[in-house]
Amino acid sequence: IEMESVGIFSADYARGKSKYGVYMIRGVSDKANKEKNDDYHTLAINNASRVMSDLLEFIFDKSNIIKKMK
Closest by alpha carbon to 24, among 36, 6, 38? Predict the structure, then answer.
């Protein structure tokens, strides 16, 4: 269950008419069971940051292509 970012989403919703909305990229680092530990935190951080980096690159690349087409 994702609970950490609910405050951000709630604040955006309460504010109304959000121009861009809120997006969350999470790195999953355990199975949320009795055996959870910190072994995969670094991997989860690296994976989430890579996804964000690739997403931003994709968005800005598409944005520049659209601008050039106009």
Answer: 6
What pLDDT is attached to residue 66?
A: 66
The Cα 63–Cα 68 span in angstroms is 9
Residue 34 has pLDDT above 90, yes or no: no
- Token pair recorded at residue 15: 């504010």
Contact, 27 vs 47, CB < 8 A? yes
Contact status, residue 48 vs residue 24, Cβ threshold 8 Å = no
pLDDT at 69 over 70: no
User: DSSP readout, the chain?
Assistant: ---TTHHHHHHHHHH-S-SS-----------SSTT--STTHHHHHHHHHHHHHHHHHHHHHHHHHHHHH-
DSSP label of 25: -
